[in-house]
Amino acid sequence: MSRPRTPPLTAPITAPFTPQTDTLVDRRQWLATAATLGIAPWLLSACASGTTATSHISPGAAKPQAAGARRQLGPLSVFPIGLGCQWRPGATPTELADSYGSRFDRPAALRLIRRAVDQGVTLIDTAEAYGPFLSEDIVGEALQGIRHQVVLETKFGFDINPDNGMRRPGLNSRPAHIREVVHAQLKRLRTDHIDVLIQHRVDPAVPIEDVAGTVKDLIAEGKVRHFGLSEPGVQTLRRAHAVQALAVIQNEYSMLWRGPEAQVLPLCEALGIGFVAWSPLGMGFLAGGVKADSRFEMSPVMDFRAISPRFAPEVLPANMALVAVVRDWARRKQATPAQLALAWLLAQKPWVVPIPGTTNMAHMTENLGAARIGFTPDELRDLNRDVAAVHIQGERLPAAVLQMSGVEAPARP
Ligand SMILES: NC(=O)c1ccc[n+]([C@@H]2O[C@H](COP(=O)([O-])OP(=O)(O)OC[C@H]3O[C@@H](n4cnc5c(N)ncnc54)[C@H](OP(=O)(O)O)[C@@H]3O)[C@@H](O)[C@H]2O)c1
């Protein structure tokens, strides 16, 4: 299948947003929350295809779209690998930082997104909170002229002032705020509709029926096409779906964190909801970016793994057993570790779509090669057995972030 190449960039490169701080927040808790969600960089720096059936297909250099693979994500049809766009201001005025110590700049981010689309990627993920605003602004600029080629996924949910990026503590999914956020998102994303609007963590103060009802209205108005939730409690998932059909659930899922397999994936299967896997490379761990003696920087831009229990010095050497499994299987499949980790996700369910994040063009292209890796049933059984044999030590996230997962929204009074 040949695709038209993307037209060249026409718009000027604009300066990143520089939101201001808010001092009302518990600092430790906020740092943890902010880091994982790609927000509040000022605080961070201050803190000191069917892949189940057949034999191996060579990954890597060949153009991924040549496989013509698509997968169904609820009602949406997308390329099997998406692109996560979660960046924040870096240590210098021109630098962009991801959450794990990688840096690049805005022109490179624009090229990365456009090249990804050129190579067949259709699912682009971002959020109001990433920057805040900055990532959406970059995505909006990058997609000029090619907007129609992608499924654009973004998120609301944090209490961020839409006018100035100032953050108040906690979450905010009150209907009026959702509307305000979407209004600002459409402008930043330079589009007249958002394909998938995701609640970025369940607000414990707002009934999910009110959230789903608001998104339903936005869909009726043509501003939003589909609805999703990130890390909801399972009852909240059901209740939301009853008001407005969910297209996707976006949760962390990888060989490093298999939590969704217990309840969320079966529920998605039963309800016909697609699953978008965040941190599919285990925050770079599965791709080979972490060693037994790795230490993660706290400044000038904090690496989120510095405050994540499963990357702590006491547990890292033991957790490296999983990296050995990935390396071994990557060798067997003539793939890279990142490709193997993504192909494993694709093989779990035909409606799982990973959204690896990267600042690196070569990594982005490499990751798309995962769509061409298949496992025989015997291989998949053995690989799953090897993955399950590794007991990962340390919580997946800092406590302050973890407490925003699996939350059940209150009932309507
Ligand atoms: N819903 C939520 O609450 C939530 C939370 C977190 C993230 N997300 C979304 O999920 C996306 C992905 O998650 P993530 O960025 O946290 O984690 P990830 O995709 O598991 O890992 C990203 C890390 O892997 C590295 N990497 C990527 N490809 C590589 C390759 N081929 N070889 C070696 N290293 C590679 C990147 O470094 P390089 O830059 O050097 O490639 C980066 O350090 C985010 O961009 C965001 O859109 C959502």
Beta percentage is 5-15%
Distance between the termini: 53 Å
Q: How many strands?
A: 15
Which small-molecule ligands are present, each listed once?
NADP nicotinamide-adenine-dinucleotide phosphate
SSE order, one letter for each helix or strand? HHEEEEEEHEHEEEHEHEHEHEHHEHHH
Average pLDDT for all residues: 87
**For this structure, what is the CATH class of the domain at 66-281 and 351-372?**
Alpha Beta
Structural class estimated from helices and strands: alpha/beta
Number of discrete helical segments: 13
Short description:
The chain has helices at 27-37, 41-46, 106-118, 134-142, 175-188, 208-220, 234-243, 264-271, 316-332, 337-348, 361-368, 377-388, 399-402, and strands at 71-73, 76-78, 83-84, 88-89, 95-97, 103-105, 123-125, 151-156, 158-160, 167-171, 194-199, 224-230, 246-252, 274-278, 352-354. The protein is of the alpha/beta class and 413 residues long.
How would you summarize the topology of this molecule?
Elements: H1 27-37, H2 41-46, E1 71-73, E2 76-78, E3 83-84, E4 88-89, E5 95-97, E6 103-105, H3 106-118, E7 123-125, H4 134-142, E8 151-156, E9 158-160, E10 167-171, H5 175-188, E11 194-199, H6 208-220, E12 224-230, H7 234-243, E13 246-252, H8 264-271, E14 274-278, H9 316-332, H10 337-348, E15 352-354, H11 361-368, H12 377-388, H13 399-402
Parallel strand pairs: 3-7, 7-8, 8-11, 11-12, 12-13, 13-14, 14-15
Antiparallel strand pairs: 1-2, 4-5, 5-6, 9-10
